[in-house]
Amino acid sequence: MAAQSLLSRLSRCLPAASSRGSRHGTVQLLLRAQAKTCGCSFSTSSCHNTKFYTDPVQAVEDIPNGSTLLVGGFGLCGIPENLIGALLKTGVKGITAVSNNAGVDNFGLGLLLQTKQIKRMISSYVGENAEFERQYLSGELEVELTPQGTLAERIRAGGAGIPAFYTSTGYGTLVQEGGAPIKYNKDGTVCIASEPREVREFDGRHFIMEKSITGDFALIKAWKSDRAGNIIFRKTARNFNQPMCKAARKTIVEVEEIVDVGSFAAEDIHVPKIYVHRLIQGEKYEKRIERLSLRKTDESQSKQKKAGDDIRERIIRRAALEFEDGMYANLGIGIPLLASNFISPDITVHLQSENGVLGLGPYPLQSEVDPDLINAGKETVTALPGASYFSSDESFAMIRGGHVNLTMLGAMQVSKFGDLANWMIPGKMVKGMGGAMDLVSSARTKVVVTMEHSAKGNAHKILENCTLPITGKQCVDRIITEKAVFDVDKKKGLSLIEIWEGLSVDDIKKSTGSEFVVSPNLQPMKQIST
User: Fold this and answer.
1) CA distances from 251 to 218, 219, 265, 383 (A)
2) How far is CA 217 from the centre of its chain?
3) Helices in 138-245 by DSSP H: which ranges?
4) Which of 20, 154, 452, 466 qualifies as a FRET site for 210, CA 20 to 30 Å off?
């Protein structure tokens, strides 16, 4: 306060200047002098300034072997391409990489997997990266699979100085119980397994304790920075980048453009300079698109259907009846997302995607394709007027907090009382849970499963108890297949409420691996009209 009073008195004592600008300049000189004299830390201080680099290798060359790196991006969207390329050149080994996924076989973090520079991945999703899955199942790579929302919150908590927190996500699953394979032996047995989580009860619900995550370095991709080091992101390229900026001892950011201070308003800054230690303008960006999905023209829609399309469309047309006017909904890839094509024009449904967008539109035309705008399935999309973009931790706050009214997703198995399994077949297939465990964790969100009634060889998918590791415990409210619709009561079990025309209750019993009751109001299976 004394310093401000002195500055005010000095400025009033200044002689009238011929121009307002010269008087302002004199005040700025006084401000700098005052900062030096009184030891105050004004913006003129050079103590914590962001350091700018021109060579990405120089920006990462001091990263030692065995470091924990937080690497931003979702799929291939918003990944730090130049910094990953620089790590290939430095050859740093023994990396623990914290990232939602590991790119693809020949791009993104997949390149560091090929060179065996990564020792452990902490991720939510293996996805379609065949090398990632191969190294994990063969015991060459340690993988700590973590629900996507939990991963985002663990990183956010780490940056906020919070050592641990409780979440309902993962209760009753391998995440809570422990025993999930982190590393396999070469013979397929488990070498390292996950530890069980502490469980506490709040207001009659069970929650598990998760510890926060911090890193030695964070490698971040942003859109623009100013010369002070403040950064902004573009569309869905924000994802994990924003919380990761805050959770590392040293944050290294690459941007597409560096602009003058004041080029964007202070209130529009996504991450303030205090979190940004090193910054580089990327030389070039490939911005590879993982799944180019385009809006179908009338001509392409009229092409001959493939075998199985009729069954899928039957499920899709029934699923579309779940939408209500004004609803906020999250749709999984495949059949659930396709159901959005049949939303009635008379209602408005706001589609949320966990990678950070609310207000998803249809697939783009070729001229509308934007690599910075994808959905959770890594497909190119558009956004409707009134849409918004946000970070991954914000997205899952919406989801866990019950602000999303409906989540619709696929399944490998569903049990009589609503347990869901859809993320792994131990020792054979591991895709990861992605955001599914979070999406089914809120008691305030309706969970609808869409799937074919039976697996290959007519194996049952609706069972008394799931035989695969579960994604959520007693979380499913409704099951829609090509044969029937079941409601799920968490205590009483399954109730058959709709049946496809031409099928009998006995037909449903034969193809269902669980007992169920028949609703007294059993109806023919409904289909949305177009």
Assistant:
1) 5, 6, 23, 30
2) 20
3) 148-159, 174-177, 241-245
4) 466
H or E element, residue 118: strand 118-123
Give mean pLDDT, residues 289-297: 91
Residue type, 430: V
Between CA 148 and CA 501 the distance in angstroms is: 40
Cβ contacts of residue 502 below 8 Å, gap of 6+?
Answer: none
pLDDT of residue 49: 86
In the sheet where 406-409 sits, what is the strand order? Answer: 383-389, 357-360, 350-353, 328-331, 406-409, 446-450, 478-480, 484-489, 493-499, 517-524
* Nearest in space to 75 (alpha carbons), one of 390, 430, 389, 378: 378
**Strand ranges, E, within 404-483:** 406-409, 413-415, 420-421, 424-425, 429-430, 446-450, 462-463, 478-480
- Phi, psi (degrees; rounded to nearest 5) at 491: -110, -40
Report the C-alpha gap between 293 and 378 in whole angstroms: 9
Specify the residue for token string 């959520």. 472
CB 63 within 8 A of CB 80: no
Rounded Cα–Cα distance for residues 316 and 343 (Å): 10
Distance CA 331, CA 450 (A): 10
- For residues 176 and 196, the answer to whether their CB atoms sit within 8 Å is yes
Characterise 91 by phi-psi region: left (phi > 0), alpha (psi -120 to 50), beta (else). Answer: left
Q: Pick from 132, 127, 130: which is nearest to 116 by CA?
A: 132
Whole-number Å distance between alpha carbons of 473 and 335: 22
Give the pLDDT mean for 217-226: 98
Q: What contacts 28, CB < 8 A, 6 or more positions away?
A: none
Which pLDDT belongs to residue 301?
A: 52
- Phi and psi based region of residue 115 (left: phi greater than 0; alpha: psi -120 to 50; beta: remaining): alpha
List the helix and strand counts (H, then E) for the chain: 15, 31
- CA distances to 319, 329, 364 from 345, rounded to whole Å, are 16, 16, 19
Residue 447: pLDDT above 60? yes
Task: Give the rounded percent of residues in the chain with a pLDDT score beyond 90.
Answer: 83
Which pLDDT score, from 0 to 100, does residue 306 have? 56
Asked about 354 being catalytic, the answer comes back as yes
Instruction: Summarize pLDDT for 305-331 with one digit per residue, the tens.
Output: 554 568 999 999 999 999 999 999 999
Sign of the Cα torsion 515, 519, 525, 529 reads negative
- Tell me, what's the pLDDT at 41? 36
One-letter identity of residue 106: N
CB 247 within 8 A of CB 158: yes
Residue 17 is predicted with a pLDDT of 38
In angstroms, the CA 408 to CA 340 distance is 11
Residue 371 and residue 221: Cα distance in Å, rounded? 14
3 state DSSP class of 240 = coil
- Strand stretches in 278-436, DSSP E: 278-281, 328-331, 350-353, 357-360, 383-389, 406-409, 413-415, 420-421, 424-425, 429-430
Task: Give the active site residue among 153, 254, 322, 354.
Answer: 354
